[in-house]
Amino acid sequence: MTVSTHMLRRRRFLPLFVTQLLNAFNDNLYKTAMVLFVVYSVYNSEAAEGTFSAIASGVFILPFFLLSALAGQLADMRDKARIIRIVKAAEIVIMSVGAAGLFLAWKGIAVHLLAIPLLMLALFAMGVHSTFFGPIKYAILPQHLREDEVLAGTGLVEAGTYVAILFGTILAGWIPVEIAAIGVIGTAVIGYLVARQVPEAPAQGEVEPLDFHFVRSSIALVRNTSHDRRVFLAIMAISFFWTIGAVLFIQFPPLAKNVLTASKEVASLFLVIFSVGVAIGSVSVNALLKGTVSARYSPVSVIAMGLFVLAFYYVCRAWPGEPQGTLLNVAEFIAHPMAIPLLLCLLGIAIAGGMFVVPLYAFLTTFVPKTQTARTIAANNIVNSGAMVVGSLIATGLSAVGLDIVHHLLLSAAMCLVSAWLGVLLLRAERAARTA
């Protein structure tokens, strides 16, 4: 197995790794604090809460769909380290706006007229921020790491990302919203200072003019990445995975409140368990593959994920709710006889998901020229975000027509079958390329 931890002591990897940790931490501290506060303190309707959660998810995802083509062009044709520093400086301004929204909502000042619009504006801007940072965090790896380190580096970035999501989510569920407002600004400042230490990563090929027409450039970008069947299938499989993830994340807060009659700290615990599981899966699949980039375990992993989603659904269906107005705290929830099976199902979903998706990201950075890696990641983000927006719209529609939130889980389970089929096609294409 490739020893990957030595990279954490190298400047060619550590500053980028820490910058991504802080980025994921801040994203989730802000998003989770916002959604939990609104779901638990502003609305009092399962349909309204589900709709708000879905809209918030769509607002964050939309910039990936609109701007990923430009982000990929910039990352491949300009110094990636310089772009990181610009993006992280912008985060300080964005989080200041978001913090103002959190503070106003906490004080109950113009909640619907001003606070929630500010929260959504900052959420959209963070989506723009992540759109430009996303291609770089993967595309820079083949530039700074040896070929036999890329899979390990990808696994570390994915695992570290989910550990950061874990801590951001825990804090958002447990600290007061006014403290979260201060925390997101402080984290943005630290992230900018760390980002200044990322080594230069200049363009690897000829610098071409940027195409600012996002529709034309997006279509061209996705078309150009479809030439390698392995890369195309990896993008499609990743898209379905993140659609499943988006639908699950949309469901957690209203499901915890209305189906399991649990507090916002329990909703935060769900997100934590999910993040821990993906981190475990990310590291485990690297150990199984021994540094080789392969989709060997992807189909069986996503089938296992779908089975765990079904098990999670049946446990939720059987859960006896508390009397109206009563919410279980974490201790009371854990003491419930059905809590451990529920959490184990959720952990299984996440571990299997991590094992499914990490090798697919390695495909995107390994089987294309280094001059094209950022644009390949950007094309992946376009397709991913389009699929996730569709998933958010479906979740919003299901909530709007009054379908119980627990039944949304069946949609996630069904999408796992599509992901498994794509995984099988990818594995066949991988074997065909190996024997050609």
UniProtKB/TrEMBL annotation:
<keyword id="KW-1133">Transmembrane helix</keyword>
<dbReference type="GO" id="GO:0005886">
    <property type="term" value="C:plasma membrane"/>
</dbReference>
<feature type="transmembrane region" description="Helical">
    <location>
        <begin position="409"/>
        <end position="427"/>
    </location>
</feature>
<keyword id="KW-1003">Cell membrane</keyword>
<feature type="transmembrane region" description="Helical">
    <location>
        <begin position="150"/>
        <end position="171"/>
    </location>
</feature>
<keyword id="KW-0813">Transport</keyword>
<keyword id="KW-0472">Membrane</keyword>
<feature type="transmembrane region" description="Helical">
    <location>
        <begin position="385"/>
        <end position="403"/>
    </location>
</feature>
<feature type="transmembrane region" description="Helical">
    <location>
        <begin position="109"/>
        <end position="129"/>
    </location>
</feature>
<protein>
    <submittedName>
        <fullName>MFS transporter</fullName>
    </submittedName>
</protein>
<dbReference type="GO" id="GO:0022857">
    <property type="term" value="F:transmembrane transporter activity"/>
</dbReference>
<feature type="transmembrane region" description="Helical">
    <location>
        <begin position="300"/>
        <end position="320"/>
    </location>
</feature>
<keyword id="KW-0812">Transmembrane</keyword>
<dbReference type="InterPro" id="IPR011701">
    <property type="entry name" value="MFS"/>
</dbReference>
<feature type="transmembrane region" description="Helical">
    <location>
        <begin position="340"/>
        <end position="364"/>
    </location>
</feature>
<feature type="transmembrane region" description="Helical">
    <location>
        <begin position="50"/>
        <end position="71"/>
    </location>
</feature>
<feature type="transmembrane region" description="Helical">
    <location>
        <begin position="231"/>
        <end position="254"/>
    </location>
</feature>
<feature type="transmembrane region" description="Helical">
    <location>
        <begin position="83"/>
        <end position="103"/>
    </location>
</feature>
<dbReference type="Pfam" id="PF07690">
    <property type="entry name" value="MFS_1"/>
</dbReference>
<dbReference type="InterPro" id="IPR036259">
    <property type="entry name" value="MFS_trans_sf"/>
</dbReference>
<feature type="transmembrane region" description="Helical">
    <location>
        <begin position="177"/>
        <end position="195"/>
    </location>
</feature>
<feature type="transmembrane region" description="Helical">
    <location>
        <begin position="266"/>
        <end position="288"/>
    </location>
</feature>
